[in-house]
Structures are given as structure tokens and as C-alpha cells.
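Translate sequence into C-alpha cells.
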Amino acid sequence: VPFRESDGRVWAEEFRCEGEEPELWSCPRVPCPGGTCHHTYSEVRLMTNGSSQCEGQVEMNISGRWRALCASHWSLANANVVCRQLGCGVAISTPSGPHLVEEGDQISTVRFHCSGSESFLWSCPVTVLGGSDCSHGNTASVICSGKREGQGLLVLRMLLE
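Result follows.
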């Protein structure tokens, strides 16, 4: 399927799933056709240190550059939206550190005001923070449940009289 502008997440690769993979990121991938993908909205990702695809430092692609988000005023409602957008269930917590931002990396000073019910982070109202509100040790992180809501095994025991 060729990439096009949409209201959903755009991956920079084409996924070649066979149907047995437990998560989307387990599927084999090839580069986006033509080498370039365009999207009118910012993408979101979690930078991890290898522990899980559904936890880590929150980053947003702004004008073609990945930037960590500032943790000032970062909320569980904002984190819930990120987890939902990435197919990682619901937010369990918004821990501090470890931070993966290096000196010289830019941190986005956009503050999100999500209610928690939005499907995408870019759907939330925003304000811009002052530059002094954020430092390299103050970046937004999230731990998601790792499962989509509604998935799991339900066992019912019926008693017949």
C-alpha cells in the first residue's frame, strides 16, 4: 500500500506481516517505496534502552527531526494518548529517567493538554513552554501496559441448575 496523507500513524517502512506476529513491530519491514514518506502530522515514538517497545522516552518528529518532549506538565492523560497511538495499551506510569537525550539534542517545549481520550497526540490542545522549563534531565517518559485494551483470555464458568 503506498503511503499517503492520513489522520493515522505513518511508518517509514512497509510492513510485510504474515499474520502470526504478536505485534506489528515483529513483522519484517522494507523501506518506504521511493525512499520518502510524507505526513501532515507529527509522528511519535518511544526511545528505549532495550527493555520494551512500549516504554521509554517520548519523542516527536517535528519538521523532520526527532525531539524529546519536555516532562514539565507531562501527565498520565498525555501518556495514555501516546500508548494508544502506538498500539501499546494504556499508560501505567510516567517515570523519571533514565534519559536518552544527549547534550546538544533539542527538546521540544510544546506542552500537551490531553484529556486522555484522544487517539493521537497531535489531537490534543498545546501551549509552548518557556525554554528554561526544560533541561536534558527533564524529558517525558512513559511505561505502557503493552497490550491493547480488550485483549486477553476470558474464562466463564456456567452453573446449570
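Note: Residues 17 and 24 are 8 Å apart (CA to CA).
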